[in-house]
Model the fold of this input.
Amino acid sequence: MFKRDPTKSYMMPAHFGARYHGPGSSGWYRDVTALTVPYVTDGSQLAQLLPQGFEPAAEPVISVFYACNRQVDWLAGRGYNMIGVNADVTYRSDGESLEGTFALVIWENLADPILTGRELQGIPKVFADIPDHSISNDVWRCNASHFGHTIVDIEVSGLRAPELEEIAASVEARKGKDNPMGWRYFQQAGSFEPKLDEYTTFPC
Done:
């Protein structure tokens, strides 16, 4: 009979055994190309999408991002692509607050990172077809679709390398705010009541 070890991590199907952790474990992403398009939105409208306890940041910024992840160690060198939407927020509870970003949705084109992120970290991941980005005449393009219907279409041009001062200013502005957050919610089987209902924060 299978017996769960309470000191180890499991994912469904749990009876296949615990997740491997050992000398060969590595979370390195060795080749990543990323694009981020931030913009200021209407804070009152953003607030309607945020769960209880969260509120838009003083400057309500939405960031749409794309990442082409290649040579991922935990995928045996394979890769996957993702497009997501984050919101700058403040979480308040019991007199304390935490500034960071709340993941509204992330589309990915591989089941492995979708299941891991949803089950273990509470990241709202869903599947989409996401081809590698293209570059033509200095225009970068990427998109997500499902059954031939476009979900997100990103086009960025006029890119340049940032100055060292700009990088330093960006790092300084994010101090104390590098807290990615999500909502881990699973409904109880055979009921509309939640079996698991908790907010999460996790390393970048």
Remarks:
- The mean pLDDT is 94.
- The domain at 26-158+177-201 is CATH 2.40.400.10 (Acetoacetate decarboxylase-like).
